[in-house]
């Protein structure tokens, strides 16, 4: 069930009404309803994969309890590793097995038919990387004694499968989300109103901006050989806005939907194109994933070693390489991560000026915004190319072509497909200190004007929604 | 606040929720009414799909020829000029997977069907099939009674306007505001007045054509090609088992387009068509891609004919089909 479908438009109010009819004091029944609704929501994609979610949930739930119960470190480690092996194993089989087998057979020039391990004909369960990382963080946190394990299976099942964030995040930590299932959740009209506004804003970003921009981008990326430099450069910038609006639109709808049920999910985006450096970009883009890797990969690496520039850079490359690989089993994604690591590493190179230890990132935060925005857009464009291209060869070809200033025939900067991108930028810029532009309007306009604005956005969505596309991040 | 634990009636919302729901209803009711009116309006507006759908219902007992393909076929075959009862079920961006599903699901209704026309134009084997989100899924379900989705349908799958708001908004605008007759069709759902295209804008000046931008796929993709060819074989096997004649057509394209074609794509398409011609007995070809009889004034743009060009091409197809007897 897609967030931008009629089915969800029916599903959400029905579940919401039932949920509040049950009443805030019947937390257990509310949770049962949420669990059933979440499994129904996910089962509409493929009910068989519900078993996978259930298995992951049970393994991590019991692993958490056993880790907590065990007195010996070796036993604790055994349960932790069991959980990690299961989670990473599932991820590997469904997401990376074919990639590694194909690469291995290519390396030795073997046809996969001749090889003992042949490719598997399997489909990737929607949202696998998201809920796997969420459950894995639970056992890791229990092991590190950051949280106590829950003794309530229902709460844990809800935590893993909570439908607003099940298939594409935000990747929640047990510390934030799990306790919310045990508390009474009281209905708050202001929070619910804000939830609806976030949903509206998310739908606008996904259906109007992302889905329309997708057409313009696909047309150019279909055959880069026939495009000029300007077209390819423009398409790469547009692709950034496509994935940004696609994914942040999803996150907005997820956070907004959760608010309607009295839950608070983590913020996942903070206008990334206004970042002032590569590192700042990752503080604004897919924030929950970045935090996950900082806490469980980057942090542990530098914690065990001397905090030198070399150690930090090593940790950075490992983390960013894995972030790239998390996106998909393709070299383009790995390179996407490595490229980001190179940029951040360069920004962090320490040097001394007048006895003061500084780095490029220090200056990036101090130079005029007009300069940093050029820098960020070059970074965004090149990253987008690796993200969007089918192969590394194709990505380098596009970069080379952009750099060779081949004239673009019939290049048009403005079309109906991209006309909402400037509106998005303007609205987000002026409301950058708020969670979303509609929150900004709250203070600026009277209620009738605000309602007119909401109606205008609803009409824009009805009239200008692009052809329905699946959310890009579902495939991850 | 009332204790909800004690009372669980259907309207047992607390005060705040009731206020929220009332405001929500107040906000969304006009939106819902607007959407319903829009849908009703579009259902009462003639479109190519509705006319073809009605024709399919009325003439299903008589139809002998079914034509499938993309916008190139939609614009180049006018069933009016075919001697036998026929229907053109092609549409913009429609690929073989959609053609096959439509054929499969209408086959039992078309008792007299004896000939199926498929398109294999220049880049057909190199372009991805229609995705599961192809916007015409709703339209074909509503008007042709064909379910293109690999699942049971929901009531919302029958909604037309939301399947492509941009297209249907243009249709409404042309019919009720502009009223310029740009969307007028004959009894077969063929665009009668589709002359106002790129070539007319350029005054049919071939020098201008060569300077203009041509949208063409020059990218060869081995994986897509392999999948599409294998799928196409399945379609042909099905038709052979059903005892149907198969006509494969490649509609005319103008020189400025032909010159830009990737020779590799062209070569491997033709090699597949050669294999097909040897493998299947009941298969016939009409390739007019480089037919010089089609002058600039018969084109809408470099790869779509206008109604005059369509007349000529349909007559060529008619001759071929008549010769099959």
What order do the helices and strands come in, and which of them pair?
The complex is a heterodimer of chains A (476) and B (325).
Chain A (H helix, E strand, L loop, with lengths): L5 H17 L4 H20 L2 H21 L3 H35 L20 H16 L9 H9 L1 H4 L7 H9 L6 H33 L7 H32 L17 H7 L2 H18 L4 H19 L3 H18 L2 E3 L2 E3 L1 H5 L4 H20 L3 H12 L16 H11 L6 H8 L2 H18 L12
Helix pairs in contact in A: 1-2, 2-6, 3-4, 3-5, 3-6, 4-5, 6-8, 9-10, 9-20, 10-16, 10-17, 12-13, 13-14, 14-16, 16-17
Chain B lengths: L14 H29 L4 H12 L5 E3 L3 H6 L9 E3 L7 H11 L8 E5 L16 H9 L20 H14 L19 H4 L4 H6 L10 H20 L3 E6 L4 H4 L4 H17 L3 E5 L11 E3 L2 E2 L1 H17 L2
Parallel strand pairs in B: 1-2, 1-3, 3-4, 4-5
Antiparallel strand pairs in B: 6-7
Helix pairs in contact in B: 2-5
Task: Give an account of the 3D structure.
The complex is a heterodimer of chains A (476) and B (325). Chain A is mainly α. Chain A has two domains: 6-187, no CATH class; 191-475, no CATH class. In chain A, 70% of the residues lie in helices and 1% in strands. Chain A has 20 helices and two strands. Chain A has helices at residues 6-22, 27-46, 49-69, 73-107, 128-143, 153-161, 163-166, 174-182, 189-221, 229-260, 278-284, 287-304, 309-327, 331-348, 360-364, 369-388, 392-403, 420-430, 437-444, 447-464, and strands at residues 351-353, 356-358. A two-stranded antiparallel ribbon of chain A has the order 1-2. In chain A, a hairpin with a 2-residue loop joins strand 1 (351-353) and strand 2. The two termini of chain A are 17 Å apart. With 325 residues, chain B is α/β, with parallel strands linked by helices. Chain B has two domains: 1-44; 48-323, Rossmann fold (3-Layer(aba) Sandwich). Chain B is built from twelve helices and seven strands. In chain B, the strands form two sheets. In chain B, strands 2-1-3-4-5 form a five-stranded parallel β-sheet, with helices on both faces. Chain B is globular, with a radius of gyration of 24 Å. The interface between A and B is large, with 38 and 37 residues.
